[in-house]
Amino acid sequence: MDSGSVASLLFEAGSLMLIGMVFVFSFLGLLIVGIHLIARFCEAFPGEKAEPSAHLKESSANLSRNNQAVQPGIDGNVIAAISAAIHTHRQNSKK
């Protein structure tokens, strides 16, 4: 191999690396600027807050055994069955 060709290959590799790093740095900088602009836009125009529906208010009022809010659409019997299965599994794995 000729030392001139090695030097030119190293120069080409360095320039490609530099171009790639500049591209990534520019992209991330634009991404940060865009996020800040969107944040300022959202602060300037907050919009209306949606009120939770009556169904969600009732569901959040009900608490399970572990004082966790019951998610809407999940039956209490299903939660009880899952809790019993976990309890049985833990009891059997101790043996």
How does this model look, in words?
This protein is an all-alpha fold and 95 residues long. The protein contains three helices and no strands.
- The helix tally amounts to 3
The total of beta strands comes to: 0
Shape descriptor reads: flat
Spell the H/E element sequence: HHH
Helix coverage percent = over 70%
Please state the CA-atom Rg, rounded to the nearest Å: 30 Å
Q: Let me know the largest β-sheet.
A: none
Mean pLDDT: 83
Helix and strand composition category? mainly alpha
Task: List low-pLDDT spans.
Answer: 63-67
Gap from first CA to last CA: 70 Å
Percentage of residues in DSSP E strands:
under 5%
Question: How are the elements arranged and paired?
Answer:
Layout (H helix, E strand, L loop, with lengths): L2 H42 L9 H8 L14 H19 L1
Question: Which short descriptors sum up this protein?
Answer:
95 residues; mainly alpha; 0% strand; flat
Kindly summarize this structure in a few lines:
Helix content is about 75%, strand content about 0%. With about 100 residues, it is an all-alpha fold.
